[in-house]
Write a structure and sequence with these properties.
Elements lengths: L1 E4 L5 E6 L5 E2 L5 E5 L10 H15 L5 E8 L9 E5 L7 E6 L12 H13 L6 E4 L9 H9 L2 E5 L35 H13 L7 H25 L2 E4 L2 H9 L8 E3 L22 E6 L8 H14 L7 E6 L4 H12 L5 E4 L7 H6 L4 E4 L9 H8 L4 E4 L2 H4 L8 E4 L4 H13 L1 H7 L15 H26 L12 E4 L21 H8 L9 H11 L6 E4 L16 H11 L2 E2 L15 H7 L1
Parallel strand pairs: 4-5, 4-8, 5-7, 8-9, 9-10, 10-11, 12-13, 12-15, 13-14, 15-16, 16-17, 18-19, 19-20
Antiparallel strand pairs: 1-2, 2-3, 6-7
The chain binds iron/sulfur cluster (SF4).
Iron/sulfur cluster (SF4) binds next to α4.
């Protein structure tokens, strides 16, 4: 067996049999394409794409996973391609196409992006036979056809919102309200129509504003919408399978958009359940009940509804003002956040604003500090990830009786429902939660509604189902290759556990039975006599080995068993803390043998210190 670096930066694997026949793996090679990728973008489709990439790569059922996404760097040339690596799995190459100066809603076809995409596809090694799209906004609607032309790949598209059906993406009317029409901002849209799209969502924002050209501009935008929808349908024709994470979305794409039912598979999102454990909500008797919001601060998320509902409660029940508080988590948005903060300040309610967090820290940063999660979105959400995450941790969810939100919450069972976009109804529900403290204990007994154990689908089972789907779609191709080539004589895999001899010469004890540090042991004496420095493994070696093996099956590591691992410090000052962080980053176990005599700065013993970490 040998490994070599391909031009994509990916480690390619080939197998040598005794007769020196070289054979490539026949497992599917996956290319994931999305309009953004963490850590540059952290919204739903981006986080999902990253989780999927890492798990597909770790599954050992794919031959390669690579990513094409965009970045927005105004200081670099347009359409420059930069290669990066996934932050959790450095064997996954990411190709970022710079696209920083786009005019919104002008180009649904972008020939420059298309050229970059084709160029990358031509050079990927191994050649992908599955291209799985997450979102094409900010890219180009021509990419599915290009993937077919260049790679002859099967095309899959996960529906994260309504962007294919609605040019604005959320069926939320987003034009500028006019004093003449008295149009309310962010009304729910009843359906796509070229003329209505042009008048309600486009001309009021993008036309010149002159009255003389009004009709001409209306005609232009009606034509633009028509062209856009025609191009969307062309793209849809090249897609072999759509994945709908909610029944609500599946139904709308079939009933309203006319996708063939056999081409829209319902597959709920999968979650890394290992980061959604050990929630500890400790609330003393007088602590206020805490309602948390997680997510972007954009108007469609309805944070203003939550603040207005809280204000209503304080106005009608001033005695409850100190009995609850609102905590808003998420990346601030320049104008929206400051307006929301002003609204909160003048409303007499207690609101705390907390920054964005890494998803792996959701328990420690969010769920340990809230009693309810509120999802007040004013659009018909697809299948909010945060509802799943809260349910896995048994945090009851308050959300609207609409769209993919109500699909996940049963009123009075695992959460509470309010009338969509209705402040008074939301206020009533929050009031009920405050006035009935026992309700919380009842609601947090239940989690996800669609499994016997009430756990959300795991990312592993989600990936298995996707791989089944990939295999079904590529069946013909794989069989053909198998007929042409002999079977691999071995498969590349890593051990489940690796022991690193990090610092065998360090120990603060000299136990009599220890073969290294006992006073009867010759080893340390010999080392000192020979003036050999204490052996300390460079942390970069540990890091590189973990990065290379984690996708091949590594599950846990053991730092030095002969020395005391908590005394580890390499020549560059990296310590045991860095080893803990490494394990957390790669989601692998740390198998620790310690003499337990070390104390954290807070006075915890070595073992509890590590547990705490
Ligand atoms: S009018 Fe058109 S663009 Fe606006 S929300 Fe409705 S479908 Fe979307």
């Amino acid at each position: 067996m040998a490994r070599f670096l391909g031009i994509s930066g990916k480690i390619n694997r080939v197998f040598f049999s005794t007769s020196s026949i070289v054979q490539t793996i026949t497992k599917p090679s996956i290319l994931l394409v999305n309009h953004g990728y963490p850590p540059l973008f952290n919204a739903g489709s981006e986080v999902y794409t990253q989780t999927l990439a890492v798990r597909l790569n770790r599954s050992r059922k794919t031959s390669a996973v690579s990513i094409i996404a965009r970045e927005q760097d105004p200081f670099r040339a347009d359409f420059l391609i930069r290669q990066a690596q996934d932050e959790h799995d450095s064997t996954i190459p990411i190709f970022l196409i710079n696209h920083a100066r786009e005019a919104p809603y002008q180009r649904f076809v972008n020939t420059d992006i298309d050229r970059c995409f084709k160029n990358l596809c031509q050079n990927l090694d191994p050649k992908p036979n599955i291209v799985h799209f997450g979102h094409l906004n900010h890219l180009s609607l021509t990419l599915p056809q290009s993937a077919k032309d260049i790679l002859d790949a099967k095309i899959i598209y996960t529906l994260h919102d309504y962007w294919l059906m609605c040019p604005r993406g959320q069926f939320l009317i987003n034009g500028v309200a006019s004093t003449f029409t008295n149009q309310e901002p962010y009304q729910l849209c009843t359906g796509q129509d070229d003329k209505i799209c042009a008048s309600k969502c486009f001309t009021s924002r993008f036309a010149t504003g002159t009255t003389t050209n009004k009709d001409r501009e209306m005609d232009y935008w009606t034509w633009w919408i028509n062209e856009r929808m025609r191009t969307v349908r062309q793209a849809c024709d090249t897609i072999d399978m759509f994945i709908a994470p909610s029944l609500h979305l599946q139904k709308r794409f079939i009933d309203e958009f006319g996708l063939p039912p056999e081409k829209v598979k319902y597959l709920p999102y999968g979650f890394d359940r290992s980061i959604l454990t050990h929630r500890q909500r400790i609330r003393s008797l007088n602590d206020p009940l805490t309602f948390g919001y997680i997510g972007r601060h954009s108007p469609s998320k309805g944070i203003n509804l939550l603040l207005e509902a809280a204000q209503q409660i304080v106005q009608t029940h001033p005695e409850l003002a100190n009995q609850f508080r609102i905590v808003i988590y998420g990346r601030p948005d320049s104008t929206t956040t400051s307006n929301l903060q002003t609204m909160a300040k003048t409303s007499g309610i207690t609101v705390e604003w907390r920054s964005e967090y890494k998803n792996s820290e959701i328990i420690a940063r969010v769920f340990n500090h809230v009693d309810y999660i509120v999802v007040p979105s004013i659009w018909n959400e697809n299948s909010p990830l945060v509802i799943h995450e809260a349910q896995q941790c048994r945090v009851p969810v308050i959300t609207a009786n609409q769209g993919g939100m109500s699909e996940l919450v049963k009123d009075g069972v695992n959460g509470l429902l309010f009338t969509h976009r209705n402040v008074s109804s939301l206020a009533q529900v929050i009031l009920r939660a405050i006035q009935q403290p026992d309700l919380l204990d009842k609601l947090n007994q239940h989690g996800y509604l669609y499994s016997n154990d009430e756990q959300v689908p795991s990312i592993e089972s989600h990936v298995d189902q996707l791989i089944d789907l990939y295999s079904t779609l590529t069946k013909g191709d794989v069989e053909e290759r198998i007929n042409l080539q002999p079977k691999p004589i071995e498969s590349l895999s890593a051990p489940r556990r690796i022991t690193f001899d990090t610092n065998p010469d360090d120990c603060n004890f000299s136990c009599i039975m220890c073969e290294q540090h006992s006073e009867h042991s010759p080893h340390q004496k010999a080392r000192k006599e020979a003036k050999i420095r204490r052996r300390r493994m460079d942390f970069d070696i540990i890091k590189q080995v973990v990065a290379e093996t984690v996708s091949l099956g590594l599950e846990e590591i053991i730092p030095s068993t002969m020395g005391e691992p908590l005394m580890y410090r390499d020549a560059k000052g990296r310590t045991f803390e860095d080893i803990i962080k490494l394990c957390r980053d790669y989601n692998i176990k740390l198998n620790l043998t310690t003499n337990g005599s070390f104390f954290s700065p807070q006075g915890h013993s070595g073992i509890s210190y590590v547990m705490q970490k």
